[in-house]
Amino acid sequence: METKPDTEELKIPEILPLLPVRDVVVYPYMILPLFVGREISIAAVDHALSRDRLIFLATQKDVSDEDPAPEAIYDVGTVAMIMRMLKLPDGRVKILVQGLTKGHISEYISSKPFYSVRVDRVSEPATTEQSIETEALIRTVKEQLTKIISLGKVISPEVMVIVENMQEPGSLADLIASNIGLKVEEAQRLLEIIDPLERLKRVNEFLNKEYELLNMQARIQSAAKEEMGKSQREYFLREQLRAIQQELGETDARAEEMAELRKAIDNAKMPPNIEKEALKQLGRLEQMHPDSAESGMLRTFMDWMVDLPWSKSTKDILDIPRAKEILDEDHYYLEKIKERILEFLAVRKLKKKMKGPILCFVGPPGVGKTSLGKSIARAMGRKFVRISLGGVRDEAEIRGHRRTYVGALPGRILQGLKQAGANNPVFMLDELDKIGADFRGDPSSALLEVLDPEQNHSFSDHYINLPFNLSNVMFIATANQIDPVPGPLRDRMEVITLSGYTEEEKLEISKRYIVPRQIKENGITDEIFSITDDAIKTVIGKYTREAGLRNLEREIGSICRKVARRVAEGEKRHFKINSAAVPRYLGPPRYLREEEMKQNEVGVATGLAWTPVGGEVLFVESTIMKGKGGLTLTGQLGDVMKESVQAALSYIRSKETELGLTEDFFHEIEIHVHVPAGAIPKDGPSAGITMATALISALTKTPVRKEVAMTGEITLRGKVLPIGGLKEKILAAIRAGVTTVIIPEQNRKDLEDIPRHILKKIKVVTAKTIDDVLAVALEKFPPAPTSPGKTNATKGKPTPRRVVVTPRKGVVVGAKQ
Is 729 tagged catalytic? Predict the structure, then answer.
């Protein structure tokens, strides 16, 4: 509480004792208690009490200074009267002082036993009649003070009463400044302002600042209170629910859930380091609020941890005869693959701990690569998992996402293992050659760890971020072509090639599997429907052109559906489909095979080509015209095939004498080489000897035998180099009615992979040089000297030997050109 003493009648001595105060600035008319503990300060109080009770109060600049020097004390302070004094038991003195008037220290008189100072009284300007500006400022200050009180500022009601009745600017400023809790520096600067109106303006600025701070504080407290109120309400309701459940004899759902998770971790039989991490994360989950976002993420992680088959595995069926029976039952032929699976089971039977093989089946579409994986799993008694990699471009599809991402999940490898429920399934990676790569990473590089038996025992998924053992998994990859698969990935797998099926194999597969399946799927029975072998051959030869069996199954299914419709319409009879009836169900034939030449012709040779849907017969035509050494190539030939023609022509020009041609014959003629079916792109080096034979035949006017087909790459020195796709090419020759096939000598070993019943239908001749080819392909060799222009005498050469190969029974290996 503050009162206004009559200072006009009070005489202020010129020299007063100084009491340095800290943490407070005393204003005139201000009454407050002070605790005095320093000896110098107690001596000053005693001296004042022994005389007129007046003392000068000045604030020291540093609060922590126990013995302030004169320069550490502000010069402007307040002359005060000690109203009461009380000595405390600890030696300190408590005094009650009242500020009287402002003063300025002009001189320090003495410093012992206390500071004595000469004080000049500071007089404020004489009060004149209040202006409108002054009155407005006083009202503004009072309103601001009321506002900050409404926002929670604590000010005594007695002070507010005095403020409401006060109209003098200087006194109002001092009273408000002493009650709004200003910092020492701010309060001191305000005390030093002499002009009352200027001092009140400064107080108004402080009040505005205080109002903004209190307003912001109120908003923060309101938001915090609202959030805290919501949390407290939820907590209160949850506790009530728990109490109700206990009264009803029900258990706490969350506690029960945590107990189930702990039990699931124990049942999962995780490795010790994995179990330790799982229990650590479970402890974190128990401490979290169930509604927090991180709690949901961690709960999903724990579900994955307990669902993964860390130690669950199926027992392999190591009955090798039974496994062979299952493989033979599901798939016709494919002897090499069946043999490889039986070898694995045999080794597994003798050695319990072994790494799972990583196989890669490469072959055209529809040859049974995917279904073969299911048969392998059934033969071994294992679970089967298949994932398609076609079009996958994100590395996270293999390794998963980090748990920090929203909606993160493990990669497809761990997802497949969870789906299988065992850590040793047959895991099929389908369409391996169709993986892409972009800014999200290269999935094929992520597979390097998965498909490496030396590394995959500690495969780390980004989501789980713990090692998982994949060494018991039997990985089987499939691809249509091996070339797009990166070299390091290809090196980690055992590549097994599946070539296309022969017509006989397709017929047998149709009778065993396709026809019975389509009969069942279309709702008819064997009593209603049957199809002859000739009809199936017609469908194979004239309605499909493929290495696999998908289109064949569609066509047979189409026949079955048309029969089913007729049965559903009321026809009651047995439908027996023969070769002549097929066009009635499927329409006119879609494909007509190339027919063999009707007679021996000059300049036309029969070649053999490999395509993704099997082998094809390829006719190469050449003709000679008068000209000036030009060479024309038509038939949409690729660069490699064009180079084969150039190489063949260069060889012929280097051997013009031996072939009975005139010197520099090429400068007098034009040569045109054409390969029919010009709309179909053709490329590859294996037509080299066919090109050479057709050119030599045209240049020497020697006919080519119509029953002979050939394949092989030619060099400038007339060597015949090996080719690929031999099985498919021989099958194409048989379909075209060719009786003799010429192949490179170095392909002799590949004949062991072709079944004996196929080789019985055709004569195979091997050739090391182009002379060996010409000796078999031309009607006469060496040819007669009938080349264009003037002829030279030919040098006689012995007729090259003809080699007929009788192949040994072997294992089928597909080849690609």
Answer: yes
